[in-house]
Write a structure and sequence with these properties.
CATH topology of the largest domain: BirA Bifunctional Protein, domain 2
Number of helices: 11
Strand content: 15-25%
Strand order of the largest sheet: 1-4-5-9-8-7-6
Structural class: alpha+beta
Shape: rod-shaped
CATH superfamily of the largest domain: Bira Bifunctional Protein, Domain 2
Number of strands: 9
Distance between the termini: 93 Å
Number of domains: 2
Order of helices and strands: HHHHHEEHEHEEHEEEHEHH
Radius of gyration: 44 Å
Helix content: 40-55%
Bound molecules: 3,4-dihydroxyphenylalanine
CATH architecture of the largest domain: 2-Layer Sandwich
């Protein structure tokens, strides 16, 4: 048996070296060294066929035993080293929950939206419901049914954005058409507000914009008087703006009679104390009731339309309406 290499010693040495491998790289080098293409054991296994027939059996057996012992040792050591590596990685990656977090920028509601939500809250508290209407409206709802006949200056193309050909469809110039839609939808009593966007061909200056926001109000019941209107406006403005001087003076609107202008004292951008008109209002004109099929002999009502943008300006001391629409974060962040 002198031609047979000492495979037992080879396996013992290999197993010892593998068990001592300090990391996965060294282990891989050992695998290549003991079982790779150029390894002595691989040579032996490959040359068994060239041995004298009597040697083939014992050498083959011993070589296979050595290979299996080495493979087992490699496998065992790999498991140990991988577990150690994983443990080390987990330890290194431990999250420090005491570190300060990342601050992400937070969005906020535009001041007009904030005011609208507060207005809705106040009127919901007084028993009103909130209605909605389209921004593209018929001239009938926006004007005719509101007692504003053809030829009225408000209906001219210089004041109104018409949609398509002709003058029967337009961007609503006021939220007042929601009064018509609400009354057409059902009988009195009615207590409703309707906030929304309106459009006019207004020149842009510090207090005008071609797109702005109103909140309409309509109350229809038996026995409503101007005192109810004034009380409602006073309660509303006090809740929203606190104690401020409010001025109510006669005005004209086609769909209310009598009609008034409501102004609130404020300080303009030149530092002057002045009145800023915030609403039109009045007692619903009987012609409007007739247009929607309500009996004007039985029902009385009041209506109002507030400018939400103007209220937001007064509320926050904003002296230029354009700031509300420019999306300048340095401005908007003050209201978050
Ligand atoms: N719609 C009017 C405007 O935009 C404001 C207004 C006035 C609304 C009187 C009303 C009202 O409901 O009764 O100028």
């Amino acid at each position: 048996m002198s031609g047979i290499p000492d495979l037992t010693a080879l396996a013992t040495d290999a197993v010892a070296e593998i068990a001592a491998a300090p990391d996965l790289q060294v282990l891989e080098a050992a695998r290549v060294g003991f079982l790779g293409r150029r390894a002595p054991l691989t040579d032996i296994l490959g040359s068994i066929g060239t041995l004298p027939p009597a040697d083939r059996g014992p050498v083959g057996k011993a070589a296979n035993a050595a290979r299996m012992a080495i493979e087992r040792a490699l496998e065992e050591r790999r498991e140990v080293l991988e577990a150690e590596t994983m443990g080390a990685a987990l330890e290194a990656e431990v999250a420090d929950v005491t570190l300060p977090g990342n601050a992400y920028p937070l969005g906020a509601l535009n001041p007009i939206t904030q005011v609208r939500l507060e207005v809705e809250d106040i009127f919901l508290g007084m028993g009103y419901s909130v209605a909605d209407g389209p921004e593209v409206e018929s001239a009938y709802n926006n004007f005719t049914a509101l007692n504003t006949p053809e030829g009225h200056p408000a209906r001219s193309a210089s004041d109104t954005f018409f949609v398509g050909q002709g003058d029967s469809v337009l961007l609503r110039t006021q939220t007042s058409p929601v009064q018509i839609r609400t009354m057409q939808a059902g009988p009195p009593p009615v207590y409703v507000i309707a906030p929304g966007t309106v459009y006019r061909r207004d020149d842009v200056d510090a207090t005008h914009s071609p797109m702005f926001h109103q909140v309409e109000g309509l109350a229809v019941d038996e026995g409503l008087t101007f005192a109810h209107l004034k009380g409602t406006i006073t309660v509303f403005l006090t809740r929203l703006l606190g104690d401020r001087e409010v001025r109510v003076i006669p005005h004209f609107f086609p769909f209310t009679e009598p009609s008034v202008d409501v102004s609130v004292s404020w300080t303009d951008r030149h530092g002057r104390t002045d009145w800023l008109e915030v609403a039109g209002a009045g007692m619903v004109d009987p012609n409007v009731f007739t247009a929607v099929g309500y009996d004007p002999e039985r029902w009385t009502g009041f209506a109002f339309g507030f400018g939400l943008d103007r209220i937001a300006m007064i509320r926050h001391g904003i002296t230029d309406i354009r700031m509300l629409y420019e999306g300048d974060l340095r401005f908007l962040e003050q209201f978050s």
